[in-house]
Design a protein that fits this description.
The structure is a single chain. The protein is α+β, with helices and mostly antiparallel strands. The strands form three sheets. A six-stranded mixed sheet has the order 2-11-10-5-6-7, with no helix packed on it. The chain has a three-stranded antiparallel sheet with strand order 3-9-8, with no helix packed on it. The radius of gyration is 38 Å and the shape is elongated.
């Protein structure tokens, strides 16, 4: 009887859902312009299949503040925006929970929106994990740092494209030159075969003529 109880206990433990870690991902830093809109990405990785009870929560910590405030929560197919917070009329859920996406969109950016946004995700029974944070910086124009980075990326891409084109045309030139060289060589050999080898007119031929006379 005791053995049956032990086996049953082991089976129940094996069949019970085991909690595993969940990893949440966001961007590290995002830049936006006053009056524009910006998308804050959030996703997660979990060893489990997507649960019907998957949830996302966003909190916001203003720049220089000590505490965070809850601004958004998604659970069981419903999105809830804090109706008293600074984003009550400007925040929209644009994620796709079926694809493990809990992104939000903020419209009408203001200077006061500068701060840290933190996303937390749960995929029961996987609920243990660290939230991920993204820092939002709002400017009245594109910051120099972002402009330099963008310019460097564009310059690098253009440089690679130009290098590829240069190599392509160089290869075409070398191949065409090689083909032309082979064509001329073959044509010369054919002319020699058709015309025969010209007779020698050197000193030996003069000596032979004299001996005949």
């Amino acid at each position: 009887m005791l053995g049956v109880l032990l086996v049953s206990s082991v089976l129940l433990v094996g069949l019970a859902p085991q909690t595993q870690a969940i990893w949440v991902y966001t961007s590290w830093e995002r830049h936006g312009l006053v009056g524009s809109e910006i998308k804050l990405y959030c996703s997660f990785f979990s060893w489990r299949w997507l649960s019907e009870d998957v949830s996302f929560s966003w909190s916001y910590k203003p720049e220089g503040a000590k505490d965070s405030i809850s601004i958004f929560h998604y659970a069981r197919g419903q999105a809830y925006v804090d109706n008293k917070g600074p984003f009550r009329d400007r925040l929209e859920f644009v994620g796709n929970p079926k694809r493990r996406d809990g992104s939000i969109l903020i419209r009408g950016l203001e200077y006061n929106d500068n701060g840290t946004f933190t996303c937390d995700a749960k995929n029961p029974p996987d609920i243990v994990g660290r939230p991920s944070s993204v820092k939002l910086l709002v400017f009245d124009r594109v910051p120099t740092r972002a402009g330099v980075i963008t310019g460097a990326i564009i310059g690098s891409v253009l440089g690679v494209v130009i290098l590829i084109l240069a190599l392509y045309y160089l290869m075409r030139f070398l191949v065409a030159r090689r083909v032309l060289s082979l064509s001329v060589s073959r044509k010369g050999k054919e002319e020699i075969r058709q015309g025969g080898i010209p007779a020698e007119t050197g000193p030996s031929s003069v000596c032979n003529t004299g001996s005949v006379q």
